[in-house]
Design a protein that fits this description.
about 15% helix; 6-stranded antiparallel beta barrel; 12 helices; alpha+beta
Length: about 475
């Protein structure tokens, strides 16, 4: 990768290297948060507080005062540290095995935003990924241990909870109405400098970062790009409009040297709201799929795609058999123009619109076919193809000579696990030939947490032939294991 194209996730690990734990997410019983807590905007604004000052310059004092007390400092701890082992890396091509310390040690730090008065806090998944203990410090210097309600690696959002009431929460604004050129502020804890506020403008919307190495096909990227200064430690912090409303979660920077070089990226509130509501209600994100492969339309490829004088919309490159789009009648070569009335002109914008809905929801799609506008109603599916619809009902899944089931609550408690899928039957096959034994609890595949058989089925259903996957897990006797398997 060329140095000038390096995109760095805003580092959460200020106190040590980022360590990936084999523990998966904690699923807590939902505690409802009122719509008023999360959604009501601040309506009464004084013009010189939220707009331009008399002298003509932008005044951010109102936005800062409304938001700074809602942003917390997140610190993470882990008992696992990586040990250098060139032999292991040579044969497996993966990070070396980890050894456990007697007590959790600091591993990183970032930011978070209080979104309800009873203690729900949103941050980035990469801030808390692999942490065994999470502490949050409020702006008034009080500290509390937080529980991880749930995480969503595909949107890089995590939801935390502390047992406190009457907290200064931030209201979630409307990122759809955010305009390019609009003033915003970033609030967070860069380099452990708490309660830091910086300002900038919205440089772009619907931005994706195609040069990231850690992306997968389920990654949801439609970032708000700003020139507000963001540095390591700002991860999970707030992007705020001049009304003092949360309109994004600061997540990444475009950099050549690991620190701010002019551009930062935030997850829009439209995605954040959907993810945290799902995590509160289900403990996991309920993501719907259209069942299509897409391509952006540019002046360079329009003629090759058979499109004449059409540079708007998103080209349908493939339609997945059995998916929602195929069932509705969408075809390869169609050009999607809008979803539920919202225009889409890039893959990122289309993903952002679909990411707002759950499996079973209907979306109205307007598209162009053979020069004519057509309308379709598509029912979103649990997966892109719909092949794994009954897994949740059956409670098990079979692949690669093994049968997998969700880990029993008793076993989770005895091993102090937060998720995982167990191999309950094992026949001759690739897994057994690599030394995997019956009873293994799979916690991660390619560093992605596995919390249910649906997660596992999704990975196997979309894995490419000859792909090498890394399986992290633990046996019922507590023995940790790491395997590299070719599919």
């Amino acid at each position: 990768m060329r140095k000038e194209n390096l995109v760095a996730i805003v580092a959460a690990a200020l106190l040590g290297g980022a360590v990936s734990s084999i523990l998966a997410i904690t699923i807590m019983q939902k505690r409802f948060v009122t719509t008023q807590d999360l959604m009501n905007p601040q309506l009464s604004l004084v013009s010189n507080q939220a707009g331009n000052s008399a002298g003509g310059g932008a005044d951010f004092t109102y936005a800062a005062e409304q938001s700074v007390n809602s942003v917390v400092h997140v610190k993470t701890y882990s008992s696992e540290v990586e040990q250098a082992d060139p032999f292991f890396e040579f044969f497996f091509g993966q990070p070396t095995p980890r050894q456990r310390q007697d007590q959790p040690v600091p591993r990183g730090a970032g930011s978070g935003v209080i979104v309800s008065k009873d203690g729900y806090i949103v941050t980035n998944n990469h801030v808390v990924d692999g942490a065994e203990k999470v502490m949050v410090t409020l702006n008034d210097k009080r500290s509390f241990e937080a529980k991880v309600v749930g995480t969503d690696p595909n949107s890089d959002i995590a939801l935390l909870k502390i047992n406190q009431t009457d907290l200064p929460f931030m209201r979630i604004g409307d990122s759809d109405n955010l305009r390019i050129g609009e003033w915003v502020i970033a609030v967070g804890n860069p380099f452990n400098l708490t309660s830091t506020v910086t300002a900038g403008i919205v440089s772009a919307k619907g931005r994706n970062l195609p040069v990231r190495e850690d992306m997968n096909q389920y990654q949801v990227e439609s970032f708000i790009q700003t020139d507000a200064v963001v540095n390591p430690g700002n991860s999970g912090g707030a992007l705020v409009n001049t009304k003092g409303e949360l309109i994004g979660i600061n997540t990444a920077i475009y950099t050549q040297n690991g620190v701010f070089n002019g551009y930062s990226f935030a997850i829009p509130a439209s995605i954040v709201k959907k993810v945290i509501y799902d995590l509160m209600e289900y403990g996991a994100v309920q993501r719907g799929f259209l069942g299509i492969s897409m391509s952006d339309i540019t002046s360079d490829n329009a003629e090759k795609l058979g499109l004449k004088n059409l540079l708007s919309g998103v080209y349908v490159a493939e339609v997945t058999a059995g998916g929602g789009a195929a069932a509705a009648g969408i075809q390869k070569g169609d050009v999607v123009e809008s979803i539920n009335g919202m225009n889409v002109n890039s893959i990122a914008q289309l993903q952002e619109q679909v990411a707002r809905y759950r499996p079973g929801d209907n979306v109205d799609i307007s598209l162009i076919r053979d020069g004519k506008v057509k309308h379709f109603k598509v029912t979103l599916r649990k997966t892109s193809s719909g092949d794994n619809q009954e897994i949740a009902v059956k409670g098990s899944f079979t692949a690669m000579g093994a049968t997998y089931a969700n880990v029993s609550p008793q076993l989770k408690n005895s091993l102090m696990l937060k998720g995982g899928v167990q191999i309950v039957e094992l026949e001759n096959g690739k897994l057994k030939s690599q030394g995997i034994r019956k009873g293994l609890i799979i916690l991660r595949i390619n560093r992605q947490p596995i919390s249910s058989v649906e997660d596992l089925a999704e990975i196997f259903a979309n894995a490419q032939q000859r792909q090498v996957i890394t399986i992290e897990g633990v046996y019922p006797n507590g023995l940790q294991a790491l395997y590299s398997i070719g599919i």
